Amino acid sequence: MQQQIIIDQQFNGPPHSGNGGYVAGAFATAVGAPCEVTLIKPPPLDTPLDIRPEADATYGLYAGDDIVAKARETQPRDNKLPFVAYEAAIEAGRRGLKTREATDVFTSCFVCGPDREPDDGLRLFAGDVSAPSGSESAGHAAVDWQPSAAFSHDGTHIAPEFVWSALDCPSAAAIGVATGEAQSILLGRLDVGISRVPAVDERCVIVSKMSGQERRKIFSDVSLFSQRGEVLASGLATWIEVSFD
């Protein structure tokens, strides 16, 4: 197991802390097993973060003596979301970009920041699938993703931490689709199981749907598919309502 990670400035979510999905993915990748990662404090950037086994069979991610996140090993999940055709995901992504451009929150986010250039950020703007009421994909968000070699360590396969990243912000988009309004939320927990990482330049689809709420916690299922509908990864995101005032 890797003992330490550093979150580079490139991988921010809010301007001065790490993107939750990327941090969770880097942590889980270092642990080397399917994990549920709980974010406890804003992950600092460009800072050595130590991974320590805990007495309760979990792992802690520490900045000095301060715990930033905890991970516990889990079984791979399948949330059985419906596949959305690649062309429909492209259209949903266009709707999502218009929604994203209407807000000035986290515009430099590694995953969903519209200010990012291609290969510097993922630029994933999930939007309403806009399916007819009663259809299988009604109420879902989706976006297309064709990840480049910039997100690969071997030039052939996308690195797992970027799969986790790609499931982060699109899972939040589903909450806006379900509620019909923009939400002030931050990622609190992400549980991801990866069946296969995409190949470089492989056409993929990300689909998400809000699955429940408990007070300030909002839950969203999210899956990554190949263009042919193969499930590559599935996750459950827990978002926390916050105030940015």
In the predicted model, the low-confidence regions spanning at least 5 consecutive residues are none
The CATH architecture of the largest domain can be named as: Roll
Q: Give the termini distance in whole angstroms.
A: 40 Å
H/E element order: EHEEEEHEEHHEEEE
Mean pLDDT: 94
Short synopsis of the structure:
The chain is an alpha+beta fold and 245 residues long.
Mind explaining what this structure looks like?
- This protein has 245 residues and is an alpha+beta fold.
- 19% of the residues lie in helices and 31% in strands.
- It has an eleven-stranded antiparallel β-sheet with strand order 1-3-4-5-2-8-11-10-9-7-6.
- Helix 1 (20-31) packs antiparallel against helix 3 (160-166).
Descriptive labels:
single chain; 245 residues; alpha+beta; Thiol Ester Dehydrase, Chain A; 11-stranded antiparallel sheet; globular
Question: What's the topology here?
Answer:
Layout: E1 4-6, H1 20-31, E2 35-39, E3 48-53, E4 59-63, E5 66-73, H2 86-101, E6 127-128, E7 141-145, H3 160-166, H4 169-179, E8 185-194, E9 204-214, E10 217-226, E11 231-241
Helix pairs in contact: 1-3
